[in-house]
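Inputs:
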Amino acid sequence: GDSVTQMEGPVTLSEEAFLTINCTYTATGYPSLFWYVQYPGEGLQLLLKATKADDKGSNKGFEATYRKETTSFHLEKGSVQVSDSAVYFCALSPSGSARQLTFGSGTQLTVLP
Amino acid sequence: KAGVTQTPRYLIKTRGQQVTLSCSPISGHRSVSWYQQTPGQGLQFLFEYFSETQRNKGNFPGRFSGRQFSNSRSEMNVSTLELGDSALYLCASSLGARTNTGELFFGEGSRLTVL
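Outputs:
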C-alpha cells in the first residue's frame, strides 16, 4: 500500500538557519503530495502541495518539489523563524482521491532565538 | 467563514463505555473525513463521508463508526472503548469533488482519554 517516510525528529535550529525535512513516498500511479503543519494545540493546516511531477509548491517561504524519479518531496526554507516551530507532516493522496491522506510520522521542529 | 468545529474538545471515558464525537464542516463543504492521531501510530485515516454516504474507510475495527447528516455535519462513534483508543480525533472537511486535489481543512480535534 501507499506509505510516506519522513525524516526523524526532533529538529532544533537557530533562527535564520536553513531547514530541510526529507520526505519520500511509495505509491502507485501519480499521487498528489502535501506538507501540513500542526502548531501546538491546533489542528493541521495545509502548508503547500504539488499535484504532478516537477511541480514546486511554495508558501510562507517554504518550498518543496515533486520529484518522481526519486519519489521525494523534501521541505526546505532558507531562513527559519521562531514562529516556524511546529510539527510538519508530509502526506500523499492517491490519484484522483484527495480526501484519503496517508501521512508520514511527523517532524517536530524547534527554532531557537 | 467559520472553520471546522469539533465537539467536545476534551473528554475522559472508562473502558467499555462508548463515545460520540461531532464535527461541523466549513459551510458549503460536503465531504467530512476523520483521522486518529496517536504518538505511536501517527495520523491514520478512519473514514470519509460525502452526501451522507461513507465513501472510503480505513483499517479500523467495526467498533469505529460514523455518519453524516443532510447538513453535512458528521458524528463518529466508538463503542466498547479500549485503552488504545486514547487519541486525538481530527475531522477534516473539503468540497468533496472526486477530482479535487485541493486541501483538507482540519478542526482542532477532540482529545479522548480512556481510563
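Remarks. The two ends of chain A are 41 Å apart (CA to CA). Residues 75 and 108 of chain A are 13 Å apart (CA to CA).
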